[in-house]
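One example given next:
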Amino acid sequence: MGLFDALNTSASGLSAQRLRMNLISDNLANVNTTRTATGRPFQRKEPVFEAQAADGSFRHALGRAISADMTLVEVVDIVPDNRPPVYKYDPGHPDADAKGYVAMPNIQAIEEMVNMMSASRSYEANVSAIKTIKDMIHKAMEIGR
């Protein structure tokens, strides 16, 4: 494992956490969206992460299984949350049904904020790892002088 492998791993983590933050922002921005293009309330979205070998060969996969080889993180899918909508009584709302209830997205602001804090900490950890790797590369170059 080289230093550049570690940089690639941290960079893939940064990209994954950035996409996660974008989805969280999208969820929070649509917390009151009662009608989308499908005519239904907005559905919360979540990323699905998967560890990917830097090299897709069997040899690399076997080596990774035997040792602690570096892997990349990839977003393989973005899935909608299948929780049912929350019904709120608001007979004056344009999307209210015959009984006066409006189907609201089932997005919990507290849950989204916890997810945002987790993504932020993960992002910071990857930035810190990249800084440490960069410092190690500089020290290695100083040794060669």
